[in-house]
C-alpha cells in the first residue's frame, strides 16, 4: 500500500428530514473527516507520532476508532471482533503500538467495523437501550459524534505536523 485514498466528504444537510437522519449524517461526516485526514499519506507517515511523550499517531487513531465503533456492535448480538488490537488475538489493549506493514489491515478493519455498526443499528429505535446497558441508541450516536470530533481535532494537529496540511 503506497498511500491511503482521500475520500469525498459531502456536507450534511442544513435541514435534515428528522433526528435520525441528522445523527447519521453528522456521524458519517465525522467518520469521513478522519479518513480525509489520513488521505494521501503513506503508512510511514500515518505512524508518525505527535510530540514526545505522546504516542498518538493517525494510524493509532484509526485503530482506536475501529474499537470505539463497538458501541454500536452490541445491537447485533454477534461476538466481538478483534480489530487488530496490538496484532495479538484476544488482546484488548490500545492502539499505541502501530505496525506500518499492517496499515492496509488497519484501514480494512476500520471499514469493517463501521460497516458492522451501520448494519447493527439499521432500523432500530433511537430509544432502544444497548443490550445490558442503560445507554440508548440516541445517546450512543451523540457520544460517537463527540468522540470522533475530539479525535479529529487531534488528527488536525497530527496532519499539520506531517505535511503542513490544515483545515477540514
Automatic annotation (TrEMBL):
- Its protein name is DinB superfamily protein
Q: Which organism is it from?
A: Actinopolymorpha rutila
Amino acid at each position: 500500500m503506497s498511500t491511503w485514498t482521500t475520500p469525498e466528504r459531502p456536507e450534511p444537510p442544513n435541514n435534515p428530514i428528522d433526528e435520525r437522519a441528522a445523527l447519521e449524517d453528522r456521524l458519517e461526516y465525522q467518520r469521513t473527516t478522519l479518513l480525509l485526514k489520513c488521505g494521501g499519506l503513506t503508512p510511514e507517515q500515518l505512524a508518525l507520532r505527535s510530540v514526545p511523550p505522546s504516542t498518538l499517531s493517525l494510524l493509532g487513531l484509526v485503530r482506536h476508532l475501529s474499537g470505539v465503533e463497538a458501541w454500536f456492535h452490541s445491537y447485533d448480538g454477534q461476538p466481538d471482533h478483534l480489530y487488530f488490537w496490538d496484532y495479538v488475538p484476544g488482546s484488548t489493549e490500545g492502539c499505541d503500538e502501530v505496525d506500518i506493514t499492517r496499515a492496509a489491515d488497519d484501514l480494512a478493519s476500520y471499514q469493517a467495523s463501521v460497516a458492522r455498526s451501520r448494519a447493527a443499528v439499521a432500523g432500530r429505535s433511537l430509544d432502544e437501550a444497548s443490550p445490558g446497558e442503560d445507554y440508548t441508541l440516541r445517546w450512543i450516536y451523540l457520544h460517537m459524534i463527540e468522540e470522533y470530533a475530539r479525535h479529529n481535532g487531534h488528527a488536525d494537529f497530527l496532519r499539520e505536523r506531517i505535511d503542513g496540511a490544515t483545515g477540514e
